[in-house]
Specification:
Layout (H helix, E strand, L loop, with lengths): L2 H57 L2 H5 L2 H15 L4 E7 L5 E4 L13 H9 L3 E4 L16 E9 L5 E9 H90 L7 H28 L2 H6 L1 H14 L3 E5 L8 H22 L3 E9 L2 E8 L6 H9 L4 H11 L3 E6 L5 E8 L1
Parallel strand pairs: 6-7
Antiparallel strand pairs: 1-2, 1-5, 3-4, 4-5, 7-8, 8-10, 9-10
Helix pairs in contact: 1-3, 1-5, 5-6, 6-8, 8-9, 9-11
The chain binds adenosine-5'-triphosphate and magnesium ion.
Length: 432
């Protein structure tokens, strides 16, 4: 992962955080708004209860209940002075039969409008009710100007025990405004803490992106070191094989051939044949060992070229009677890293064919087109399924996985396709 990749991850994290915050903020706003509205309506209810019980009820005499003009005038004075405000715009006192006993709007006094179910319930149960006024009702004919109203009503009593319904009208806009004030008080704190949380997380995201990237680098480094040390080891083994057993076998085959040729007249033909067979066996051993040396020693690749080295690799399979068809141009111009990768991939694939495939035919093809090198190795062997490969991998067999890692390290693609009974194909594409 590059530095850019780390920054990209942090930016993605930050944006996701902002989106989450926006969602939270909107949802919180909706909830808060609802709460504020409920709170404001409760306030309106408390105000009406205070006005009804605390101010109007003490001034609501039996005479006022009976409709005596002097008593009503006194009540009106109290209402005008102590109840009505800019936001409290109307007061009505109803008799249980729906007659308006008193209102600060004189034209309403004496009018009769049957009480609704809610009003009757408020009277019967002694509770305080609040609702948005239906301004189209005839009883609200004088309240139609100045926007929506919230009406709150509750029962009150005259000293003699007579019951009436006290009703107070408040501007909805004042209710909304007090809700808004609550939202305005809470919202900055809520949004501020969300923002703070988001800000605190940014450096954390930044440092964990760094740690992740360092971890990946370390892993890459270990992989390269492992490959490097294994190729040093291989070179050593290859050199040992080449200088030791190969030379010994060469000497042996030479001596055996010479002995067979120089056998005096009359020597038992079976002995001569045994000497010749021995020489052949020694030469075959040399061939096999040379192939093995080539296979494990990447050094020869640079001297002999890719086509020749792959030809050497095929020797092992051919010695087992497998037909190997190679189509690799001898004049390929490839970067050393690409050449080595293609060689290693071919070596692994052919080792796998020898070890697992039971194939009769293998095709190896390399082509270069448009700056990309393509390697394709197909066999007609028994194939395998994903589960087998996964299991082998868990058991520590990493041949194909290492090839895939190397390919992706070089910025290429590797595809292994196989099906039990239908052979295996490995297709690799890397920058040439
Ligand atoms: N050409 C093939 N034909 C059939 N089976 C194969 C072939 N190539 C790979 N496989 C299956 O896939 C498995 C994984 O192969 P891989 O090269 O990753 O590991 P390995 O060859 O088992 O061990 P390692 O390569 O580490 O020595 C093999 O064990 C084998 O079952
Ligand atoms: Mg393998």
């Amino acid at each position: 992962m590059s530095t850019n990749g780390g920054a990209g991850a942090v930016v993605r994290f930050a944006v996701a955080g902002l989106v989450a915050m926006a969602v939270l903020g909107v949802a919180g706003g909706i909830v808060l708004n609802g709460l504020a509205e409920d709170e404001a309506v409760d306030d309106a209810r408390r105000l009406a209860t205070l006005a009804g019980r605390g101010v109007v009820e003490p001034a609501f005499t039996d005479a006022a209940l009976a409709g005596a003009p002097a008593a009503l005038a006194e009540l009106d004075l109290v209402v005008q002075e102590r109840v009505l405000t800019e936001d409290v715009v109307r007061v009505k006192i109803w008799a249980p039969d729906g007659t308006i006993l008193y209102s600060d709007e004189p034209r309403l006094i004496g009018q009769r409008y049957p009480l609704g179910a809610d009003e009757q319930e408020a009277l019967a149960e002694g509770v305080t009710e609040a609702e948005l006024s239906d301004l189209s009702k005839p009883e609200n004919v004088y309240e139609r100007e100045g926007g929506e109203l919230l009406e709150v009503y509750l029962p009150i009593r005259a000293p003699g025990g007579g019951q009436a319904l006290f009703e107070l009208y408040q501007r909805q806009s004042s209710i909304d405004a007090s809700g808004r004030r609550l939202v305005e008080a809470v919202a900055p704190v809520a949004i501020g803490s969300l923002l703070l949380l988001w800000l605190i997380q940014l450096p954390l995201a930044w440092s964990s992106a760094h740690r992740l990237r360092d971890g990946l680098r370390e892993r890459q480094g270990l992989l390269e070191a492992a490959l490097e040390s294994s190729s040093v080891e291989r070179r050593r083994i290859a050199a040992d094989l080449h200088d030791g057993p190969v030379q010994n076998l060469a000497g042996l085959s030479f001596s055996l051939s010479a002995a067979a040729e120089r056998a005096p007249e009359g020597t038992d033909p079976a002995t001569v044949r045994a000497l010749e067979d021995g020489a052949d066996a020694a030469r075959d051993g040399i061939r096999r060992l040379r192939a093995a040396v080539v296979e494990i020693n990447p050094g020869r690749l640079h001297d002999a070229g890719l086509a020749a080295s792959i030809g050497d690799l095929a020797g092992v399979l051919r010695a087992r009677g497998v037909t190997v068809e190679i189509d690799v141009p001898s004049d390929l111009a490839l970067a050393p890293a690409t050449e080595e990768l293609l060689y290693r991939a071919t070596a692994e694939a052919l080792r796998n064919v020898a070890a697992h495939a039971e194939a009769t035919r293998v095709g190896v093809r390399i082509s270069v087109d448009d700056g990309r090198a393509a390697l394709r190795i197909e066999d007609d062997g028994r194939g395998f399924d994903a589960a087998t490969r996964a299991r082998r991998r868990e058991e520590g067999h990493l041949g194909l996985a290492l090839v895939e890692d190397l390919v992706s390290h070089l910025g290429g693609t590797a595809a292994v396709t196989s099906e039990p009974g239908h052979g295996t194909t490995i297709a690799i594409e890397v920058p040439a």
